[in-house]
Amino acid sequence: DGGITQSPKYLFRKEGQNVTLSCEQNLNHDAMYWYRQDPGQGLRLIYYSQIVNDFQKGDIAEGYSVSREKKESFPLTVTSAQKNPTAFYLCASRDRQNTEAFFGQGTRLTVV
Amino acid sequence: AQSVTQLGSHVSVSEGALVLLRCNYSSSVPPYLFWYVQYPNQGLQLLLKYTTGATLVKGINGFEAEFKKSETSFHLTKPSAHMSDAAEYFCAVIPRGSGNTGKLIFGQGTTLQVKP
After folding, report:
1. Least CB-CB distance to B90: which of A31, A33, A42?
2. Most Cβ neighbours (<10 Å): which of A48, B2, B48, B61?
3. What pLDDT does B5 receive?
4. Looking at CA atoms only, how far is residue A45 from chain B in angstroms?
5. What is the per-residue pLDDT for B99?
6. pLDDT per position as a tens digit, B51-65
7. Direct distance between the N- and C-terminal alpha carbons of chain B, in angstroms, rounded to an integer
8. Secondary structure of chain B as H, E, C letters
9. Residues from A in contact with B at Cβ < 8 Å
10. Helix/strand/coil (H/E/C) assignment for every residue in A52-97
11. In chain A, what residues touch B44 (CB-CB under 8 Å)?
12. How distant is the alpha carbon of residue A3 from its chain centre?
């Protein structure tokens, strides 16, 4: 089955720790995106990548970092600099020939 | 900057009643338009999209939406609500034009409650 896999589904982090959220897709899509979801705020773009070895900041990139070493993988690191990391994180990918984006099932990150 | 407004953060309907979820966008050039649905602790699933052509778009699960350029709107409707329609719905756009990176701009979301 083709799709986007995010792991883990739930993640707990102590304050001051960095954590990495995994996003893997086997759809052969060029573009990948990370969104953050908070209640009542919709989804906000953190980072995106249109091609391997290239990525751009979105609207709320502070405290986050990404890499795009392989076409199928786009991991997101939530660093200790992110002041309020508790949220639901969604990864998406898109074929550059089409407008539709496909989403993973999300990772819920909680700072304890 | 482009923005998307969903009127009503919560909408409640009775089972069998009409569902109407409102969405307006801000740009003078009509963007690509999307409606997504999200069930609790799940990702987003595309309901329907408008890119070009017929302004009435049919999607999955009996939903449809109409693009109205004069009103800068893309409201989502379903003639008869089912209990299984209870979820959060997001309207989103991708601006058209050169440099299209495919970045989705989302509205704040509308939670649909369906009462028996």
Report:
1. A42
2. A48
3. 96
4. 8
5. 64
6. 988 999 999 999 999
7. 41
8. CCCEEEECCEEEEECCCCEEEEEEECCCCCCEEEEEEECCCCCEEEEEEECCCCCEEECHHHCEEEEEHHHCEEEEEECCCCHHHCEEEEEEEECCCCCCCCCCEECCCEEEEEEC
9. 4, 6, 9, 31, 33, 35, 40-45, 48, 50, 56, 58, 88, 90, 92, 94, 96, 99-106, 108
10. CCEEEECCCCCCEEECCCECCECCEEECCCCCCCCEEEEEEEECCC
11. 43, 90, 92, 103
12. 15
B88 CB-near residues (< 8 Å, 6+ apart) = B37, B38, B39, B109, B110, B111, B112
Residue B34 C-alpha from the chain's centroid: 6
Assess contact for B91 and B106: CB atoms under 8 A: yes
Per-position DSSP letters for A7-19, written without gaps between them: E-SEEEE-TT--E
Instruction: Please tell me the predicted confidence (pLDDT) of residue A73.
Output: 98
For B15-60, what is each residue's pLDDT tens digit? 999 999 999 999 888 899 999 999 988 999 999 999 988 999 999 9
Residue owning tokens 């909680």: A110
Between chains, do B51 and A99 touch, taking CB under 8 Å as contact?
A: yes
Mean pLDDT of A79-104: 90
**Nearest CA of chain A to the CA of B76: how many Å?**
17
